[in-house]
Design a protein that fits this description.
The chain is mainly alpha-helical and 327 residues long. It contains 13 helices and 7 strands. Strands 5-6-7 form a 3-stranded mixed beta sheet. Bound molecules: zinc ion.
């Protein structure tokens, strides 16, 4: 946030204490904020508008909560954090490499990415958006869009759409089942996803497509994740993203999504659980992973996983989760 470099004690005192209240309706701040804009800004020279009001509200809220001005970063500082440069540098790498490189960039000590992006997910999303923007720009400029996309030679159209028969062929091949969370059957709309997104050079064909439910497709986003394979491409997955139960899906389906997304493939062979008290696997669930998915990766997250099952998935009767490889 761009804050004025100085702020004297008197101005601190002008900020009412109730502005630190989390539930404060920001509209109540408006009169005071506009009186300060009149006092301290010049309508001839400064750009006055809702963006300025918003910035001032944020700064005042920060001061009210923390009792100090927000950290100041000069524009020179900010220039060193150019997402566009980063997108050009890492855009061509495979997704797992990108994630690895971006993670080290984000976590490098003393850098400001964390100031601009609250968490790694926001950072990587911004990176993906920026990369998409660059590709779209280049497409607009280039006469040879075919270098980036695959041109259908018959009618010279960019071939990014599958035909209806092709879509049906893919769903049939995948057994009308979401390859990420294993949902299927009536009431579950299945979508066709391009494993490697077209803008990353993936082809709009049957081979590069997979059946996913709406939620899994949404969560996969622009990531190149192949749920048709059962062996993880990750050298060392770090983030375990904990998905919440959506719609009428079961907690087990949600858990399968969480684990398959973690391994970046269809890693789960089966989750053994029992609905009945006294049943085997009632309080100790068993996650069976296909060969090629190191169980240690998930075991390292075990306490997080158990807490997730108990709290987010509302299965507080589960006391332990065993993670094993299929024999
Ligand atoms: Zn799904």
């Amino acid at each position: 946030m761009q804050a004025s470099g100085y702020c004297d004690k008197n101005k601190f005192d002008q900020i009412p204490e109730e502005w630190s209240d989390e539930k404060l309706d920001e509209k109540t701040m408006a009169p005071k904020i506009s009186s300060w804009i009149n006092e301290y800004f010049d309508s001839m020279k400064d750009i006055i508008g809702p963006a300025l009001e918003n910035d001032l509200i944020k700064i005042c809220r920060h001061i009210a909560v923390h009792g100090s001005v927000p950290e100041y970063h000069s524009f020179e500082d900010r220039e060193r954090y150019d997402l566009s440069k980063l997108a050009r540098k890492f855009g061509g790498q495979t997704k797992p490499q990108q994630i690895y490189l971006l993670k080290s960039e984000y976590e490098k000590s003393g850098n400001l990415w964390k100031v601009f992006y609250k968490n790694f997910h926001m950072f990587i999303n911004a990176f993906d958006l920026e990369f998409t923007r660059i590709i779209l720009d280049e497409m607009g400029k280039s006469k040879n869009a075919g270098d980036l996309f695959h041109i259908n030679e018959d009618n010279n159209k960019i071939d990014i759409e599958l035909t209806e028969p092709e879509k049906e062929q893919i769903k049939k091949r995948d057994n009308y089942t979401c390859l990420c969370c294993f949902k299927s059957g009536k009431g579950n709309r299945m979508e066709i996803d391009h494993i490697v997104p077209v803008f990353q050079g993936g082809r709009a064909d049957v081979e590069n497509s997979q059946t996913l439910c709406r939620e899994c497709n949404f969560q996969k986003g622009k990531n190149a994740i192949n749920f048709r394979i059962n062996s993880s491409p990750c050298i060392n997955p770090k983030e375990l993203y904990l998905y919440q139960v959506k719609g009428s899906e079961s907690q087990i389906q949600t858990l399968i999504r969480t684990i398959n997304m973690f391994y970046h493939c269809q890693a789960v062979s089966e989750i053994k659980y029992s609905l009945r008290r006294n049943g085997k696997n009632y309080s100790t669930w068993e996650v069976e992973l296909y060969q090629g998915n190191n169980p240690e990766f998930l075991k390292n997250k075990k306490s997080e996983l158990i807490k997730y099952v108990q709290e987010d998935l509302s299965c507080d009767h589960v006391k332990d989760v065993n993670i094993v490889s299929v024999q």
